[in-house]
Amino acid sequence: MQKILLLVFLLSVPFFTTMAQAPLQWNQIAAGVWSAKAGTPDKVNFYTVTGVHPKTERLSSMASVEFPLPKDEISAVIRDGKTYLRFPLTKDEKIFGLGLNFKTVEQRGRILRLHVDHYGGQDNGRTHAPVPFYVSSKGYGVLINAARYIDVWVGTAVRKDSKNPPVARDRNTDKKWSSAPYSDNIEMLVPAEGTEIIVFGGPSMLDAVRRYNLYNGGGCLPPKWGLGFWHRTPTRYTDKQVAEEVHQYEQHKFPLTVIGLEPGWQSKSYPCTYEWDKSRFPNPEGFLTDMKQKGININLWFNPYVSPDGELYDKILPYTATHTVWCGVVPDYAMAETNKIIGDHFMKHTISKGVSGFKMDENDGYDNWLWPDVTLFPSGVSAEQMRSLYAMMMQKMTTDLYHKQNTRTYGLVRGSNAGASSFPYVIYNDYYNHPDFITALINSSFIGVLWTPEVRSSKTAEEWLRRIQTVCFSPIAMIDAWSDGTKPWSFPEVEKQVQEMANLRMQLIPYLYTSYADYAFDGTPPARAMNLEEGFTPQNIIIEGQLSSTENPYATALKREVKDQFMVGESMLVAPLFTGQQTRKVILPQGKWYDFYTGKFAGEGEVITVTPGLDIIPVYVKDGGIIPMMPAVTKISTEKLPVEIRVYGQKESSYNLYDDDGVSFDYENGKFVRVVLKVSKDKSGKLKGAVSIPKGASLWSYNEFKWNFMTK
Ligand code: GAL
Known about the structure:
It contains 13 helices and 38 strands. Helix 4 (205-215) packs across helix 13 (509-522). 48% of the residues are buried. A hairpin with a 5-residue loop joins strand 29 and strand 30 (601-604). The chain is an alpha+beta fold. Mean pLDDT is 95; it is low at 5-20. Bound molecules: beta-D-galactopyranose. Residues 235, 262-263, 301, 361-362, 430, 480, 482 line the site of beta-D-galactopyranose.
């Protein structure tokens, strides 16, 4: 008997080895970053498209780490032109990322098909940025560098050869029976003959995210005006109406740094000409100059589909796909010619005239409003790959145009994917659920993208104010009035509070701008999930599933997770309230936390319950937190401003305030200053502050520093 078993075993070894047709050879490609190729990867992938340069020096300066996973437990098999991938999971490991999800933060237990699309209300993988990158609570990250619709089973599939197999139980009698037996792996199916796999070390989860962002060239650094207040005007506004809108903002003494023009700036839209409409904007140059003088940056909406009526059409036609969208031709951005032709057109009509950036719409989906997967592109890149990469290609083209003229841009995009961290674009959409918008903001921080919970309209003054409060702590503080024509003061009963929020946004720019510099230089996401914060270890509340033939036929357990509070910059914790909520719980990580507005002690490693009133969005600062603020200006100019340095708590600490010219890429050549703000205790134990500007350096933005110790 034993002999027979041995024979079976010996025969099975070569069988399993031939199945593992894609042995993985791991190569270190940067400090703490390893790559392996399974099978024959596609020629086109995220990095061939983005062309970004990893920040290798910064990566090398991070703590040195070993390969974070057992190599022999990662496997790849190629069969029928598809790649089967398997990665190990340990018992308490939590998984985050895998796209811009709107309802869930933790992904273990989920099944996804990662597919660029407009978010449809379910976390099933179809979303604006279905980034195939995950980070683990064990402090590492994994990226599948394949621009494909990837299926992912995140700790759901149970294999016969599992190292930690679940026990089969009898549902009739065993209370421990579970509808989701324990799974010890993540499995993926990549519909391609191979893929590159990239593993990012930590040691912490935030470090793994940082490495991922640094590998993508570091995060973007927006121009300073991009962090001000934005307003998008109704779609068919004329130059005079836009000027009137700006005038009204001035009258209300309300901050405004960007006006976004929607489809009507063009002579034709859906499909687009990318040429000014002569009736609404008879003198674009004059309009743009006038706006510039008023301190307003102009951002233009467009979608990718080219109208037969514009001057671009004939030139671009040979470089377009077999199918049309809204009767417009679909440029093949995988071709150099396309980028040149469209780039020249954009330069001529928009960028060279002083347009500050774009909102690049409808490059994500809604299946009916996009080309189908049977579309053929002249470059030979498949429609599936094009869909996965299209918005990335548009981001790349426009980013390069601005880079070439040494001017920073900051704009909006509806689609994105892996490798996008350095592109100065923020994702938005048509979905409009306020709590879900905040969950998306949290999730954006795992996957190297930015997201804005833009404010469009509201049913009540309460909702309006609550939405304004959260958008002011997001990557773009924006009212998108493209269809509703709302104004900040549309609800007069909360006008004052809305104004105070917008003012606070402006005051926080020194802090926010520094947070973005930390994103650009160190890869630290400017708005972050609590899970990325040290000392945040909430136990998930698992609600036992109750068996029910209609509601829950498999007695699936529910997980309650933290998706309504987040970190902004180094030390701020933001805990928004939503319509109808008067009270909420806030989880304060370990260490002492202080109320941002009063400086008073709020709690320490505990859950607090707060009832802040409608006017307040609860914000807390960790012990030793330093928040540099400037006056509530309404515009961003070259005028030097005084800085109020707020200090919270009792701890000694320091902060590196970032400053540069705010508009150009000169910072990439070292033209920036870090002002060190240091808080230490004097002999009597009292806190005192010191400002040190590096020798010989002069500042662009600030002229005075005043300390404000908030905690008395
Ligand atoms: C939508 C977009 C909106 C608005 C609109 C204009 O696709 O998501 O924000 O720009 O187009 O037609």
